[in-house]
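Suppose you are handed a protein chain with no further information: no name, no annotation, nothing but its sequence. What can you learn? This example shows the usual starting point.
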Amino acid sequence: MTPHPIGPLRPETQYQRHRQTPDRLNNSMRRAYDLLRSSLQSSPESLYLVEGELTEALSASRNTVRAVLQLLAKDGLVTRSPKRGTRSANVTTLRVNEIAPVEAFGGEHAIHAQLRALDYQILGCPGLVRERLQLVGEWIVLMMESLLIQHEMVLGISVSYVALSPEESRDVVVDEPDAILFLEKHFDVRIRGTKSTTIGATAADAQSARLVGVEVGAPMLFLEDILEDEQGQARALSQFRLRSDLVAFQTNAVRSA
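A reasonable first move is to predict its three-dimensional structure. Written in structure tokens, the prediction is:
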């Protein structure tokens, strides 16, 4: 008589029962993918990838390495060619704990990026922006939207909501698409840092996909900064949608006591 199952198997039990006996100590496609992807994104230059060398470096089987490289190619992180082999794509690494104009994105080892303006307009002072920037009084909000470009490759979309005082809002000339440089150039406002930084994930909608050159639904990174001046007043809400195959974030974390 066949006993009835007591209940569904725990996920970790299913994982252990169904995985193949590895011929390498770390033969997991998921772990190998994450380890290799993070290593490629932390490298300042493009690298040639050899399957035989990766089996040792990842402690994974050749079949696992081959499957990981195929997935990385699908995600745009490596290029594969019968004659040229497999090579990692150039990824821009952004230091999220350092505030700088977009032209300095990526730090000293990266090629400078630039913003190409798409649209700008005075919005009055939308309630949600007023709340996020904690604006009191007759502030005006300037919206600036741009593409983030590097080597004529579109890395993402930038949108900034810049708070202007009544005096600053008179005869505004938008000749600089970067919020930090705009405030410093026209109003001598020094941005000292961020009030908050948020990083998340999103998917490309139809408009984003068309602007940055990816498929609808492609994974994108989301970065939001609230920039504040030397007096502690929040002056801009800056948001970026970035291609996850071309951009990575990096910071240094310290354990608190």
